[in-house]
Amino acid sequence: MIDDILGEIGMIKRVQQDQDRIGIAIHRTLSHGNSDASDTHLLREGNPLRSAESRYMITKLDRLDEDARRVRKSASIPTTSQLQETD
Q: Which of 77, 85, 86 minimizes the C-alpha distance to 6?
């Protein structure tokens, strides 16, 4: 169950990061491709192209991920891969 939640959090983070990349591509297109900066550089945390909402969402998802891992650890819940190893 917790592994499912962690998987969903990871998926949502990937979608958010993909949306950031799309936003950067649009920005580049609108600025006539004059930027030589790589997408990796543009996706840095302090990049002004990354919206405050996007930064907030990624931070919130990171916290949820940490919380889910803490719950799993404190409740001694094995991971899916650990369960499969015992079968």
A: 77
The full DSSP string for 23-81 is HHHHHHHHTTT-----HHHHTSTT-TTS-HHHHHHHHHHHHHHHHHHHHHHHTTPPPHH
Segment 42-53, tens digit of pLDDT: 555 555 556 778
Quick check: 8 pLDDT over 90? yes
Residue 43 near residue 27, CB atoms below 8 Å: no
Please, are residues 76 and 69 in contact by the beta-carbon 8 Å criterion? Answer: no
Q: What is the pLDDT of residue 48?
A: 55
